[in-house]
From TrEMBL:
Name of the protein described by the UniProt record: Citronellyl-CoA dehydrogenase
Residue ranges annotated for the Acyl-CoA dehydrogenase/oxidase N-terminal domain, each copy included: 4-118
Record organism: Enhydrobacter aerosaccus
Cofactor: FAD
Gene3D superfamilies: Acyl-CoA dehydrogenase/oxidase, N-terminal domain, Butyryl-CoA Dehydrogenase, subunit A, domain 2, Butyryl-CoA Dehydrogenase, subunit A, domain 3
Matching Pfam families: Acyl-CoA_dh_1 (PF00441), Acyl-CoA_dh_M (PF02770), Acyl-CoA_dh_N (PF02771)
Domain Acyl-CoA dehydrogenase/oxidase C-terminal: from-to ranges: 229-375
Homology family: Belongs to the acyl-CoA dehydrogenase family.
Amino acid sequence: MKFTPEHEALRQTWKTLIDREVNPYVDEWEREGQFPAHELFKKMGNAGLLGVDKPVEFGGSGLDFSYAMICSESLGLVNGGSIPMATGVQISMATPALARYGSDELRQEFLAPSISGDYVACLGVSETGAGSDVASIKTTARRVGGDWVINGGKMWTTNGAQADWMCLLANSGDGPVHKNKSLIVVPMKTKGISIVKKLNKLGMRASDTVQTFFDEVKVPVRYTIGQPGSGFIYQMQQFQEERLWAGAGTLMGCERIINATIDYTRERQVFGRPLLDNQVVHFRLAELKSEVEALRSLVYRACEDYLAGKDVTMLASMGKLKAGRLRREVSDACLQYWGGAGYLWDSPVARSYRDGRLGSIGGGADEVMLQIISKLMGTMPRLDNR
């Protein structure tokens, strides 16, 4: 993939913002269990970073998706996974369908302030009984006059404690499970919404994640994104961007930990010489660096195909699968070379170890990625009639 001076300028803008507004505060936010989303997103919005690939008429830059990939890759400079994940929800997980299919009125009301950083967005798809199996969600939206009346609940909602609106997937009619769902914009202060608890997670400690319930929540039917009944299709399209984002976001995060490990093992003396001088150490780091470059090639190829209008379901799934596993491999291998220092809670490699584990679960577990790839290869039997 060829990058222009505009791509490189975007990288530099992200680096400057991360150096000034993020990394100096990450440790504090980790301890508090939440970062100030409105404050930070507003700074990102003022810098033009939240809508690089969104329509100009709603405050975006109108650029192609490769610029969103630069955003994801650059966020790997953050000393932890929480802020990159939360920002990814804002840019490439909760807003793509709204930007692509929403009415002008709906986009002006919710997309524009999300691009400016005045609104925080969240995505409502997963439930306690339906995570990777999106078709099995139970949350319902029944039409009563000009309103949707929503009942049910969502789980693992990133940004949920601070969000102004949710991109909600709900069953809005009868029929096949892939054709009975709608994506609906739900303002989070609407009567009947209750946030039960902020979840106490292994990693991603600075990102608020909640469980949400909906009890007779009324929102106007005009808050439907695109066509009612097309929500499953729209969400699958959003997942493609989410998975490409996940692949790109892994690159610099892995490089950051590998480089930190090189620095640490060069200084750490073991039996009278730097730990890095041991062949098993520098060979292993060379292997990991090679794997990062292989992932980069896969992600860039998928992005190029996506820009060309090709179906990237297989490549995006492969990239997501490889990214989750590589982040785990890099963190685990590097932690070993840090020894006891790496086992300390606040060490960068320990945080990467905790945060990176989510990569093989969130946004579609490894097993789901393998299922998708197998299906597209024609090697998996059809197990149901859906």
